[in-house]
Design brief:
alpha+beta, four-stranded antiparallel sheet, binds inosine-5'-diphosphate, binds magnesium ion, Nucleoside_diP_kinase_AS, ATP binding, NDK-like_dom_sf, metal-binding, magnesium
């Protein structure tokens, strides 16, 4: 299996709660290499491209509003099978149900909002990773 890259986002809830370093440290501690990193005030245009697969879903507008609510830490990590590996570290989408030991399971919960504030994003395929890295890092 060749070396992959994935886009990791610490979403605005994670940055606001002061968890950026803790979250990135877990990914580094797993053994993946940090190759790009920046704080971004995302625009609606950027988010429309990033979340294009979700346009029209009931949580789409709350998701965009949430992602506009503060800065996001955008990172690229590299390693064999990093795409699957990061999603395993992140845990399942719903933080209430994410396994303890995962980022979402350890630090996330349901806040009674229309969008799951689940701390992180990770690309879900090599094609998504290439597309998303292009969007966030040009
Ligand atoms: P993922 O981040 O685990 O890949 P996706 O299905 O790609 O999950 O959804 C993107 C984001 O949209 C999620 O991380 C979460 O913040 C939000 N989201 C997804 N599904 C729901 C839902 O059913 N209700 C509320 N928010 C959701
Ligand atoms: Mg996704």
């Amino acid at each position: 299996m060749s070396v992959e890259r994935t886009l990791v986002l610490v979403k605005p809830d994670g940055v606001a709660r002061g968890l950026t370093g803790t979250i990135l440290a877990r990914v580094e501690a797993k053994g993946y290499k940090l190759v790009q990193l920046k704080l971004v005030d995302a625009t609606r245009e950027l988010l429309e491209r990033h979340y294009e697969e979700h346009i029209g879903k009931p949580f789409y507008e709350p998701l965009v509003e949430f992602m506009l609510s503060g800065p996001t830490a955008a990172a690229v990590f590299e390693g064999q099978r990093v795409i699957e590996g990061f999603r395993s570290l992140a845990g399942t989408t719903e933080p209430t149900l994410a396994a303890p030991g995962t980022i979402r399971g350890d630090f996330g919960r349901d806040w009674g909002l229309k969008v799951q504030q689940n701390l992180v994003h990770g690309s879900d395929s090599p094609e998504s990773a290439a597309r998303e890295i292009g969007i966030w890092f040009g």
